[in-house]
Amino acid sequence: MKQKINHFRDLHHQADPLLIGNVWNVQSAKVFENLGYKAIATSSAAVAESLGYADGQAMSFEEYLFIVRRIAKSTSLPLSVDLESGYGNNADEIVRNIRQLQELGIVGINIEDSVINNGKREIADAHRFADLLASITSAIRQDERLFINVRTDVFLLGLQHPVEEGKRRLARYEKTGIDGLFFPCITEREHIQAIVAEATLPVNVMCMPALPDFVTLKALGVKRISMGNFVNKEVYKHLESMMKKIDAAKSFSPVFQ
User: Fold this and answer.
1) How many other C-beta atoms are found inside a 10 Å radius of the C-beta of residue 44?
2) Reduced to 3 states, what is the DSSP secondary structure of residue 218?
3) pTM for this model (two decimals)
4) Alpha carbon of 51 to those of 48, 57, 120, 247: distances in Å?
């Protein structure tokens, strides 16, 4: 297991950025495995939607764990899990969840510095969140520690001066023993360049309409590229389109064209 985690960690330090396949069930995981992807990660939003929940820990951890277990048993690829805000009210509860993931052979997690309260996503206090991260990393033995990718939502939430706030947060988070930094919704080249220049850990960005292409992201120093739940949404757009064609044709012929 340690070897698999170290391999996943090494993928964040190679010359080309790690393009990680975001999955929501076994079928999607198998697609990425068959295409030769090097690693996969759950999209919590996509898993939640597939179970009829909204994003933001509306599904229970037990329900989520069932899906994760099925994916882990069905693929040989390194699997990371989007743990959202940790599915716990304190470090001890979050660590218990992480240990359950470790038992399944999970190689990494994402944990984010925002929470949803009364349907609204809010950024966490940077000091308190850094303390939480330090408690989590110190509770997990170094020889068994999976890759901890910390998501900061300064761009996702459209905060004022997101680059400056992102730099402030990454400086605190990097001191807690984590392994990577995730900035969803960052898209402007100068913003990416400024964050990467400030970070000492691998920087992760996410699929967005205005995100630069992979060659540009490599040149900017990005080390990991995520898909989020956008591929999931596109898959079901194709399903809807197919069903419309079947309805129009009054036949299943569109399925076989």
Assistant:
1) 28
2) helix
3) 0.95
4) 5, 12, 21, 26
